[in-house]
Hints:
Elements: H1 3-17, E1 22-25, H2 32-43, E2 48-51, H3 55-69, E3 73-77, H4 81-84, H5 87-96, E4 100-106, E5 131-134, E6 149-154, E7 185-187, E8 191-195, H6 204-214, E9 218-220, H7 233-236, H8 240-246, E10 250-254, H9 261-268, E11 272-276, E12 291-293, E13 299-301, H10 308-319, H11 328-337, E14 343-347, H12 351-359, E15 366-369, H13 380-388, E16 394-399, H14 400-405, E17 418-424, H15 442-447, H16 454-459, E18 464-468, H17 471-479, E19 485-491, H18 495-516
Helix pairs in contact: 1-2, 3-5, 3-13, 10-18, 11-12, 11-17
Amino acid sequence: MSNSTKLAHSLLRQLIEVGVSDFVVSPGSRNAPLAIALGEAASKQIIDLHIKIDERGAAYFALGISKASNNYVAVICTSGTAAANFHPAALEAFHSGSKLIMITADRPARLRKTGANQTTEQVNIYSMIKTHDFAAEIDLKILLTGSVVHLNVQFDEPLIENEKSDWLAGLKILPHNYENKISGKLEVSNGVLIIGHDRAGYSVSEVNDFASKLNWPIICEDPISFPEAIAHASVFLSDPQLAARLAPENVVVIGRTTLSRSINTFISLAKKVIVIDPRTTNIDTKREADLILKFLPSEVVSAKSDQSIWHSASNAAASQLENLDWSEQLAIKEICELLPNESALFVGSSRPVRDIEAFVKPRSGVSVFANRGLAGIDGNVSTVFGITSEFESTTAILGDLTFLHDISALTNATTGNLRIFVIDNNGGGIFSTLPQANVDNFDKLFGTPHNLDLLKVIAGFGITVNKVSNLKELQSKASEQIKGFEVVVVNVPSRESNAGQLKDITQRVSSAVRIGINLA
Protein backbone atom coordinates (compact mmCIF):
# COMPACT_ATOMS: atom_id res chain seq x y z
CA MET A 1 0.00 0.00 0.00
CA SER A 2 1.29 3.47 -0.92
CA ASN A 3 2.67 5.72 1.77
CA SER A 4 0.09 8.41 0.89
CA THR A 5 -2.81 6.04 1.50
CA LYS A 6 -1.30 4.83 4.79
CA LEU A 7 -0.75 8.43 5.88
CA ALA A 8 -4.33 9.39 5.04
CA HIS A 9 -5.70 6.40 6.95
CA SER A 10 -3.58 7.13 10.02
CA LEU A 11 -4.52 10.81 10.08
CA LEU A 12 -8.25 10.26 9.66
CA ARG A 13 -8.44 7.33 12.05
CA GLN A 14 -6.89 9.43 14.82
CA LEU A 15 -9.34 12.27 14.20
CA ILE A 16 -12.33 9.96 14.21
CA GLU A 17 -11.20 8.26 17.42
CA VAL A 18 -11.03 11.58 19.31
CA GLY A 19 -14.60 12.40 18.27
CA VAL A 20 -14.28 14.42 15.05
CA SER A 21 -17.40 13.40 13.16
CA ASP A 22 -17.82 16.11 10.49
CA PHE A 23 -15.45 16.41 7.54
CA VAL A 24 -15.79 19.01 4.80
CA VAL A 25 -13.95 18.33 1.54
CA SER A 26 -13.38 20.36 -1.60
CA PRO A 27 -12.56 18.15 -4.61
CA GLY A 28 -8.97 18.05 -5.79
CA SER A 29 -6.19 15.74 -6.92
CA ARG A 30 -3.52 16.03 -4.22
CA ASN A 31 -6.06 15.47 -1.42
CA ALA A 32 -7.44 12.35 -3.14
CA PRO A 33 -6.07 9.92 -0.50
CA LEU A 34 -8.07 11.75 2.17
CA ALA A 35 -11.21 12.12 0.07
CA ILE A 36 -11.30 8.43 -0.89
CA ALA A 37 -10.79 7.32 2.70
CA LEU A 38 -13.50 9.66 3.96
CA GLY A 39 -15.87 8.31 1.34
CA GLU A 40 -15.32 4.85 2.79
CA ALA A 41 -15.95 6.07 6.34
CA ALA A 42 -19.09 7.92 5.30
CA SER A 43 -20.45 4.87 3.47
CA LYS A 44 -20.24 3.02 6.79
CA GLN A 45 -22.03 5.92 8.53
CA ILE A 46 -19.06 6.51 10.82
CA ILE A 47 -18.75 10.18 9.87
CA ASP A 48 -20.75 12.93 8.16
CA LEU A 49 -19.06 13.93 4.91
CA HIS A 50 -19.85 17.29 3.28
CA ILE A 51 -18.62 18.16 -0.21
CA LYS A 52 -18.20 21.86 -1.06
CA ILE A 53 -16.73 22.94 -4.39
CA ASP A 54 -15.42 26.29 -3.14
CA GLU A 55 -12.65 26.11 -0.53
CA ARG A 56 -13.45 29.52 0.92
CA GLY A 57 -17.07 28.57 1.47
CA ALA A 58 -16.08 25.09 2.64
CA ALA A 59 -13.97 26.54 5.47
CA TYR A 60 -16.80 28.83 6.61
CA PHE A 61 -19.27 25.93 6.39
CA ALA A 62 -16.98 23.89 8.64
CA LEU A 63 -16.69 26.87 10.98
CA GLY A 64 -20.48 27.02 11.23
CA ILE A 65 -20.70 23.36 12.23
CA SER A 66 -17.93 23.90 14.78
CA LYS A 67 -19.72 26.89 16.32
CA ALA A 68 -22.99 24.97 16.56
CA SER A 69 -21.52 21.70 17.83
CA ASN A 70 -18.66 23.11 19.94
CA ASN A 71 -16.49 20.36 18.50
CA TYR A 72 -13.63 20.15 16.06
CA VAL A 73 -14.57 20.01 12.39
CA ALA A 74 -12.03 19.20 9.67
CA VAL A 75 -11.98 20.99 6.33
CA ILE A 76 -9.77 19.52 3.61
CA CYS A 77 -8.43 20.90 0.34
CA THR A 78 -5.85 20.25 -2.37
CA SER A 79 -2.62 22.24 -2.78
CA GLY A 80 -1.92 25.71 -4.18
CA THR A 81 -4.50 28.51 -4.20
CA ALA A 82 -6.99 26.14 -2.58
CA ALA A 83 -5.08 26.44 0.69
CA ALA A 84 -5.07 30.24 0.44
CA ASN A 85 -8.87 30.23 0.23
CA PHE A 86 -9.05 28.89 3.79
CA HIS A 87 -7.43 32.08 5.09
CA PRO A 88 -10.51 34.25 5.88
CA ALA A 89 -12.20 31.49 7.86
CA ALA A 90 -8.88 30.63 9.52
CA LEU A 91 -8.61 34.19 10.84
CA GLU A 92 -12.21 34.18 12.05
CA ALA A 93 -11.66 30.84 13.79
CA PHE A 94 -8.41 32.04 15.37
CA HIS A 95 -9.83 35.27 16.77
CA SER A 96 -13.08 33.68 17.93
CA GLY A 97 -11.37 30.69 19.53
CA SER A 98 -13.26 28.21 17.34
CA LYS A 99 -12.35 24.56 16.87
CA LEU A 100 -11.38 24.23 13.23
CA ILE A 101 -8.92 21.77 11.71
CA MET A 102 -7.60 22.86 8.33
CA ILE A 103 -5.99 20.03 6.41
CA THR A 104 -4.15 21.19 3.31
CA ALA A 105 -2.75 18.56 0.99
CA ASP A 106 0.69 19.37 -0.40
CA ARG A 107 3.37 18.11 -2.77
CA PRO A 108 6.48 16.60 -1.18
CA ALA A 109 8.86 19.19 0.34
CA ARG A 110 11.51 18.44 -2.29
CA LEU A 111 9.28 20.00 -4.96
CA ARG A 112 8.91 23.36 -3.24
CA LYS A 113 10.51 26.32 -5.06
CA THR A 114 11.26 24.14 -8.12
CA GLY A 115 8.45 25.41 -10.33
CA ALA A 116 6.43 22.23 -9.78
CA ASN A 117 2.76 22.52 -10.71
CA GLN A 118 0.32 23.73 -8.04
CA THR A 119 3.11 24.01 -5.48
CA THR A 120 3.69 26.98 -3.19
CA GLU A 121 4.88 27.58 0.36
CA GLN A 122 1.96 26.34 2.45
CA VAL A 123 3.91 26.15 5.73
CA ASN A 124 2.78 29.01 8.01
CA ILE A 125 0.53 30.32 5.25
CA TYR A 126 -1.90 31.50 7.93
CA SER A 127 0.81 33.49 9.78
CA MET A 128 -0.55 33.47 13.36
CA ILE A 129 -1.54 29.78 13.17
CA LYS A 130 1.32 27.30 13.42
CA THR A 131 1.58 24.79 10.58
CA HIS A 132 2.27 21.15 11.40
CA ASP A 133 4.01 20.01 8.21
CA PHE A 134 4.56 16.29 7.83
CA ALA A 135 5.02 13.40 5.42
CA ALA A 136 4.82 10.58 7.99
CA GLU A 137 2.51 9.64 10.85
CA ILE A 138 2.26 12.03 13.80
CA ASP A 139 0.35 11.99 17.08
CA LEU A 140 -2.62 14.33 16.58
CA LYS A 141 -4.02 14.16 20.10
CA ILE A 142 -1.41 16.53 21.50
CA LEU A 143 -2.31 19.13 18.83
CA LEU A 144 -6.04 19.35 19.54
CA THR A 145 -6.08 21.74 22.47
CA GLY A 146 -9.33 23.55 21.68
CA SER A 147 -8.03 26.13 19.22
CA VAL A 148 -7.65 26.22 15.43
CA VAL A 149 -5.14 23.74 13.94
CA HIS A 150 -3.40 23.64 10.55
CA LEU A 151 -2.14 20.31 9.25
CA ASN A 152 -0.13 20.40 6.01
CA VAL A 153 0.18 16.87 4.68
CA GLN A 154 2.78 15.98 2.06
CA PHE A 155 1.39 13.31 -0.27
CA ASP A 156 3.74 11.67 -2.76
CA GLU A 157 2.84 9.59 -5.80
CA PRO A 158 1.07 7.24 -6.13
CA LEU A 159 -1.96 8.99 -4.64
CA ILE A 160 -4.51 6.31 -5.44
CA GLU A 161 -4.14 2.73 -4.22
CA ASN A 162 -5.92 -0.23 -5.79
CA GLU A 163 -5.28 -2.44 -2.79
CA LYS A 164 -8.11 -2.29 -0.25
CA SER A 165 -7.52 -2.04 3.48
CA ASP A 166 -10.00 -2.34 6.33
CA TRP A 167 -8.44 0.68 8.03
CA LEU A 168 -11.59 1.36 10.04
CA ALA A 169 -11.62 -2.01 11.79
CA GLY A 170 -11.54 -1.88 15.58
CA LEU A 171 -12.25 1.83 15.88
CA LYS A 172 -12.51 3.05 19.47
CA ILE A 173 -14.19 6.45 19.44
CA LEU A 174 -13.58 8.29 22.69
CA PRO A 175 -14.69 11.91 22.15
CA HIS A 176 -12.63 14.50 23.97
CA ASN A 177 -14.56 16.95 26.13
CA TYR A 178 -13.36 20.49 25.44
CA GLU A 179 -14.77 22.10 28.55
CA ASN A 180 -14.14 25.75 29.31
CA LYS A 181 -12.03 26.20 32.40
CA ILE A 182 -13.78 27.81 35.36
CA SER A 183 -11.61 28.51 38.37
CA GLY A 184 -10.41 31.13 40.82
CA LYS A 185 -12.06 33.69 43.05
CA LEU A 186 -13.24 37.22 42.34
CA GLU A 187 -13.83 39.70 45.15
CA VAL A 188 -15.38 43.00 44.12
CA SER A 189 -17.89 45.57 45.38
CA ASN A 190 -20.77 46.75 43.17
CA GLY A 191 -20.82 47.44 39.46
CA VAL A 192 -22.14 46.44 36.03
CA LEU A 193 -21.58 43.20 34.10
CA ILE A 194 -21.07 43.54 30.35
CA ILE A 195 -21.20 40.43 28.17
CA GLY A 196 -19.61 40.47 24.73
CA HIS A 197 -21.34 38.73 21.84
CA ASP A 198 -19.11 35.65 21.91
CA ARG A 199 -19.08 35.36 25.73
CA ALA A 200 -15.31 34.61 25.62
CA GLY A 201 -16.21 31.08 24.53
CA TYR A 202 -18.28 30.30 27.62
CA SER A 203 -21.78 28.86 27.36
CA VAL A 204 -24.89 30.85 28.19
CA SER A 205 -25.49 28.69 31.27
CA GLU A 206 -21.91 29.20 32.52
CA VAL A 207 -22.20 32.97 32.14
CA ASN A 208 -25.65 33.00 33.74
CA ASP A 209 -24.29 31.12 36.74
CA PHE A 210 -21.52 33.69 37.13
CA ALA A 211 -23.98 36.59 36.68
CA SER A 212 -26.27 35.24 39.38
CA LYS A 213 -23.35 35.30 41.84
CA LEU A 214 -22.48 38.91 40.95
CA ASN A 215 -26.09 40.11 41.15
CA TRP A 216 -25.34 43.23 39.08
CA PRO A 217 -27.15 44.92 36.18
CA ILE A 218 -26.31 43.12 32.94
CA ILE A 219 -25.63 44.70 29.55
CA CYS A 220 -25.42 42.22 26.67
CA GLU A 221 -24.41 42.60 23.06
CA ASP A 222 -26.61 39.53 22.51
CA PRO A 223 -29.87 40.19 24.43
CA ILE A 224 -31.56 37.17 22.86
CA SER A 225 -29.50 34.85 25.06
CA PHE A 226 -29.93 36.74 28.34
CA PRO A 227 -33.51 37.59 29.38
CA GLU A 228 -32.29 39.47 32.48
CA ALA A 229 -30.28 41.95 30.41
CA ILE A 230 -31.00 45.68 30.49
CA ALA A 231 -32.82 46.36 27.23
CA HIS A 232 -31.70 49.11 24.83
CA ALA A 233 -28.63 50.10 26.88
CA SER A 234 -26.52 50.81 23.80
CA VAL A 235 -29.08 53.41 22.71
CA PHE A 236 -29.55 55.42 25.89
CA LEU A 237 -25.87 55.18 26.90
CA SER A 238 -24.96 57.08 23.74
CA ASP A 239 -26.08 60.17 25.71
CA PRO A 240 -22.91 61.31 27.57
CA GLN A 241 -24.88 62.72 30.49
CA LEU A 242 -26.83 59.49 30.96
CA ALA A 243 -23.63 57.45 30.71
CA ALA A 244 -21.97 59.64 33.34
CA ARG A 245 -25.00 59.36 35.63
CA LEU A 246 -24.99 55.54 35.37
CA ALA A 247 -21.20 55.10 35.46
CA PRO A 248 -20.35 52.29 37.92
CA GLU A 249 -17.50 51.79 40.32
CA ASN A 250 -16.61 48.50 38.62
CA VAL A 251 -17.22 46.96 35.24
CA VAL A 252 -16.67 43.27 34.53
CA VAL A 253 -16.39 42.49 30.82
CA ILE A 254 -16.75 38.91 29.61
CA GLY A 255 -15.18 38.49 26.18
CA ARG A 256 -14.87 41.37 23.74
CA THR A 257 -17.23 44.30 23.24
CA THR A 258 -17.04 44.77 19.49
CA LEU A 259 -20.27 46.60 18.65
CA SER A 260 -21.35 49.90 20.14
CA ARG A 261 -19.07 52.85 20.71
CA SER A 262 -21.47 53.90 23.47
CA ILE A 263 -20.78 50.71 25.46
CA ASN A 264 -17.02 50.98 25.08
CA THR A 265 -17.15 54.62 26.16
CA PHE A 266 -19.29 53.61 29.14
CA ILE A 267 -16.72 50.99 30.14
CA SER A 268 -14.01 53.64 30.18
CA LEU A 269 -16.01 55.64 32.76
CA ALA A 270 -15.71 52.93 35.42
CA LYS A 271 -13.16 53.33 38.19
CA LYS A 272 -12.03 49.73 37.69
CA VAL A 273 -12.33 47.49 34.65
CA ILE A 274 -12.03 43.71 34.97
CA VAL A 275 -11.74 41.60 31.82
CA ILE A 276 -12.48 37.87 31.71
CA ASP A 277 -11.28 36.21 28.51
CA PRO A 278 -9.06 33.14 27.91
CA ARG A 279 -7.86 34.70 24.63
CA THR A 280 -5.72 37.13 26.61
CA THR A 281 -3.27 34.24 27.01
CA ASN A 282 -2.22 33.83 23.38
CA ILE A 283 -4.39 36.00 21.08
CA ASP A 284 -5.30 39.33 22.69
CA THR A 285 -2.07 39.49 24.66
CA LYS A 286 -1.91 43.31 24.69
CA ARG A 287 -5.43 43.87 25.98
CA GLU A 288 -5.56 46.41 28.79
CA ALA A 289 -7.63 46.53 31.99
CA ASP A 290 -7.14 47.02 35.71
CA LEU A 291 -7.44 43.27 36.15
CA ILE A 292 -7.37 40.55 33.50
CA LEU A 293 -8.63 37.06 34.34
CA LYS A 294 -7.96 34.21 31.96
CA PHE A 295 -10.81 32.09 33.32
CA LEU A 296 -14.35 32.64 34.53
CA PRO A 297 -14.14 32.64 38.34
CA SER A 298 -15.84 29.75 40.10
CA GLU A 299 -16.22 31.74 43.32
CA VAL A 300 -17.56 35.29 43.51
CA VAL A 301 -17.84 37.68 46.45
CA SER A 302 -19.59 40.93 45.55
CA ALA A 303 -21.99 43.57 46.80
CA LYS A 304 -25.47 43.57 45.28
CA SER A 305 -25.97 46.57 43.01
CA ASP A 306 -29.19 48.59 42.97
CA GLN A 307 -30.78 47.92 39.58
CA SER A 308 -33.87 50.13 39.92
CA ILE A 309 -32.39 53.08 38.04
CA TRP A 310 -31.33 50.77 35.22
CA HIS A 311 -34.82 49.31 34.88
CA SER A 312 -36.30 52.80 34.89
CA ALA A 313 -33.94 53.80 32.09
CA SER A 314 -34.72 50.63 30.13
CA ASN A 315 -38.49 51.07 30.49
CA ALA A 316 -38.30 54.69 29.43
CA ALA A 317 -36.29 53.71 26.35
CA ALA A 318 -38.73 50.92 25.50
CA SER A 319 -41.64 53.36 25.56
CA GLN A 320 -40.07 55.16 22.58
CA LEU A 321 -39.51 51.96 20.60
CA GLU A 322 -42.99 50.46 20.69
CA ASN A 323 -44.36 52.20 17.60
CA LEU A 324 -41.49 52.40 15.17
CA ASP A 325 -42.12 53.22 11.53
CA TRP A 326 -41.39 50.52 8.95
CA SER A 327 -37.61 50.22 8.93
CA GLU A 328 -34.67 47.87 9.31
CA GLN A 329 -34.92 48.23 13.07
CA LEU A 330 -38.62 47.33 13.20
CA ALA A 331 -38.14 44.38 10.86
CA ILE A 332 -35.26 42.93 12.88
CA LYS A 333 -37.06 43.57 16.18
CA GLU A 334 -40.14 41.73 14.91
CA ILE A 335 -38.21 38.77 13.47
CA CYS A 336 -36.41 38.21 16.77
CA GLU A 337 -39.61 38.36 18.81
CA LEU A 338 -41.21 35.72 16.57
CA LEU A 339 -38.30 33.24 16.62
CA PRO A 340 -39.47 29.81 17.79
CA ASN A 341 -37.92 28.32 20.92
CA GLU A 342 -35.21 25.68 20.51
CA SER A 343 -34.14 27.16 17.19
CA ALA A 344 -30.94 28.86 16.04
CA LEU A 345 -30.30 32.41 14.87
CA PHE A 346 -27.30 33.61 12.90
CA VAL A 347 -26.76 37.37 12.81
CA GLY A 348 -24.80 39.07 10.06
CA SER A 349 -22.18 41.70 10.75
CA SER A 350 -22.60 45.46 10.24
CA ARG A 351 -26.12 46.79 10.98
CA PRO A 352 -28.15 43.64 11.88
CA VAL A 353 -25.99 42.66 14.86
CA ARG A 354 -26.05 46.24 16.14
CA ASP A 355 -29.80 46.60 15.68
CA ILE A 356 -30.40 43.44 17.70
CA GLU A 357 -28.26 44.77 20.51
CA ALA A 358 -30.06 48.11 20.48
CA PHE A 359 -33.70 47.34 19.72
CA VAL A 360 -34.58 43.72 20.53
CA LYS A 361 -36.21 42.87 23.84
CA PRO A 362 -34.17 40.40 25.92
CA ARG A 363 -35.48 36.86 25.70
CA SER A 364 -34.28 33.25 25.80
CA GLY A 365 -34.91 29.95 24.04
CA VAL A 366 -32.77 30.62 20.96
CA SER A 367 -29.13 29.68 20.26
CA VAL A 368 -27.45 32.75 18.76
CA PHE A 369 -24.38 32.75 16.51
CA ALA A 370 -22.35 35.37 14.67
CA ASN A 371 -18.88 35.69 13.19
CA ARG A 372 -17.56 38.19 15.73
CA GLY A 373 -13.91 37.06 15.74
CA LEU A 374 -13.06 39.60 13.06
CA ALA A 375 -16.64 40.69 12.30
CA GLY A 376 -16.28 40.25 8.55
CA ILE A 377 -19.18 40.03 6.13
CA ASP A 378 -17.48 37.31 4.10
CA GLY A 379 -18.58 33.68 4.31
CA ASN A 380 -21.74 34.39 6.30
CA VAL A 381 -24.07 32.34 4.10
CA SER A 382 -21.70 29.35 4.21
CA THR A 383 -21.43 29.68 8.01
CA VAL A 384 -25.23 29.69 8.25
CA PHE A 385 -25.40 26.50 6.19
CA GLY A 386 -23.00 24.82 8.62
CA ILE A 387 -25.06 25.89 11.64
CA THR A 388 -28.25 24.71 9.92
CA SER A 389 -26.87 21.16 9.75
CA GLU A 390 -26.91 21.03 13.57
CA PHE A 391 -30.44 22.39 14.23
CA GLU A 392 -34.00 21.46 13.32
CA SER A 393 -34.84 25.09 12.57
CA THR A 394 -32.53 28.02 11.81
CA THR A 395 -33.08 31.68 10.99
CA ALA A 396 -30.50 34.14 9.69
CA ILE A 397 -30.61 37.92 9.35
CA LEU A 398 -28.13 39.33 6.83
CA GLY A 399 -27.62 42.63 5.10
CA ASP A 400 -27.83 42.66 1.30
CA LEU A 401 -24.08 43.17 0.77
CA THR A 402 -23.26 40.44 3.28
CA PHE A 403 -25.58 38.09 1.43
CA LEU A 404 -24.19 38.97 -2.00
CA HIS A 405 -20.59 38.66 -0.77
CA ASP A 406 -21.15 34.91 -0.32
CA ILE A 407 -23.73 34.38 -3.07
CA SER A 408 -21.71 31.50 -4.55
CA ALA A 409 -22.70 29.41 -1.53
CA LEU A 410 -26.14 29.05 -3.10
CA THR A 411 -24.64 26.71 -5.71
CA ASN A 412 -24.31 24.13 -2.93
CA ALA A 413 -27.20 25.14 -0.68
CA THR A 414 -28.34 23.52 2.53
CA THR A 415 -31.08 20.89 2.56
CA GLY A 416 -31.99 21.77 6.16
CA ASN A 417 -34.72 24.02 7.53
CA LEU A 418 -33.39 27.54 7.09
CA ARG A 419 -34.94 30.94 6.46
CA ILE A 420 -32.61 33.81 5.60
CA PHE A 421 -34.00 37.32 5.93
CA VAL A 422 -32.02 39.67 3.67
CA ILE A 423 -32.37 43.31 4.70
CA ASP A 424 -32.34 45.05 1.32
CA ASN A 425 -31.46 48.75 1.44
CA ASN A 426 -29.43 48.58 -1.77
CA GLY A 427 -25.96 48.86 -0.31
CA GLY A 428 -23.81 49.30 2.76
CA GLY A 429 -26.28 50.79 5.21
CA ILE A 430 -23.90 50.98 8.15
CA PHE A 431 -21.72 53.58 6.43
CA SER A 432 -24.62 56.04 6.38
CA THR A 433 -24.46 56.03 10.18
CA LEU A 434 -20.67 56.55 10.39
CA PRO A 435 -18.55 59.74 10.13
CA GLN A 436 -17.77 59.15 6.43
CA ALA A 437 -21.46 59.58 5.55
CA ASN A 438 -20.85 63.14 4.35
CA VAL A 439 -17.63 62.73 2.39
CA ASP A 440 -17.42 63.40 -1.35
CA ASN A 441 -18.24 60.40 -3.55
CA PHE A 442 -19.83 58.69 -0.56
CA ASP A 443 -22.15 56.43 -2.54
CA LYS A 444 -19.42 55.24 -4.88
CA LEU A 445 -16.86 54.64 -2.15
CA PHE A 446 -18.99 53.45 0.77
CA GLY A 447 -22.70 53.16 -0.04
CA THR A 448 -21.89 50.85 -2.99
CA PRO A 449 -25.45 50.30 -4.27
CA HIS A 450 -25.77 46.92 -6.00
CA ASN A 451 -28.92 47.89 -7.98
CA LEU A 452 -29.84 44.22 -8.30
CA ASP A 453 -33.24 42.59 -8.27
CA LEU A 454 -32.45 40.14 -5.48
CA LEU A 455 -35.55 38.06 -6.18
CA LYS A 456 -34.35 37.32 -9.71
CA VAL A 457 -30.77 36.69 -8.58
CA ILE A 458 -31.82 34.22 -5.88
CA ALA A 459 -34.45 32.51 -8.03
CA GLY A 460 -31.72 31.97 -10.63
CA PHE A 461 -30.08 29.51 -8.22
CA GLY A 462 -33.36 27.59 -7.93
CA ILE A 463 -33.92 28.83 -4.37
CA THR A 464 -37.39 29.62 -2.99
CA VAL A 465 -37.57 33.38 -2.47
CA ASN A 466 -40.22 35.86 -1.32
CA LYS A 467 -40.32 39.58 -0.64
CA VAL A 468 -41.95 41.54 2.19
CA SER A 469 -42.36 45.30 2.19
CA ASN A 470 -44.34 46.10 5.34
CA LEU A 471 -44.88 44.94 8.90
CA LYS A 472 -47.96 42.83 8.19
CA GLU A 473 -46.24 40.89 5.40
CA LEU A 474 -43.17 40.36 7.58
CA GLN A 475 -45.18 39.12 10.55
CA SER A 476 -47.02 36.65 8.33
CA LYS A 477 -43.83 35.21 6.86
CA ALA A 478 -41.86 35.17 10.14
CA SER A 479 -44.73 33.32 11.86
CA GLU A 480 -44.68 30.45 9.36
CA GLN A 481 -42.95 27.22 10.31
CA ILE A 482 -39.63 26.85 8.51
CA LYS A 483 -39.73 23.95 6.06
CA GLY A 484 -36.70 23.58 3.83
CA PHE A 485 -34.56 26.48 2.65
CA GLU A 486 -35.98 29.82 1.65
CA VAL A 487 -34.84 33.43 1.40
CA VAL A 488 -37.02 36.38 2.32
CA VAL A 489 -35.98 39.75 0.91
CA VAL A 490 -37.03 42.50 3.32
CA ASN A 491 -37.55 45.68 1.33
CA VAL A 492 -36.83 48.62 3.66
CA PRO A 493 -36.50 52.41 3.21
CA SER A 494 -33.32 53.96 1.87
CA ARG A 495 -30.03 53.99 3.75
CA GLU A 496 -30.26 57.75 4.15
CA SER A 497 -33.77 57.48 5.57
CA ASN A 498 -32.63 54.79 7.99
CA ALA A 499 -29.71 56.91 9.23
CA GLY A 500 -32.10 59.78 9.84
CA GLN A 501 -34.55 57.59 11.74
CA LEU A 502 -31.75 56.20 13.91
CA LYS A 503 -30.72 59.71 14.84
CA ASP A 504 -34.31 60.65 15.66
CA ILE A 505 -34.85 57.48 17.73
CA THR A 506 -31.67 58.09 19.71
CA GLN A 507 -32.72 61.63 20.53
CA ARG A 508 -36.22 60.58 21.61
CA VAL A 509 -34.86 57.76 23.76
CA SER A 510 -32.36 60.11 25.38
CA SER A 511 -35.07 62.62 26.32
CA ALA A 512 -37.38 59.92 27.68
CA VAL A 513 -34.66 58.27 29.78
CA ARG A 514 -33.52 61.59 31.23
CA ILE A 515 -37.07 62.19 32.41
CA GLY A 516 -37.43 58.58 33.56
CA ILE A 517 -34.43 58.77 35.90
CA ASN A 518 -35.01 62.39 36.94
CA LEU A 519 -32.03 63.77 35.09
CA ALA A 520 -33.93 66.22 32.88
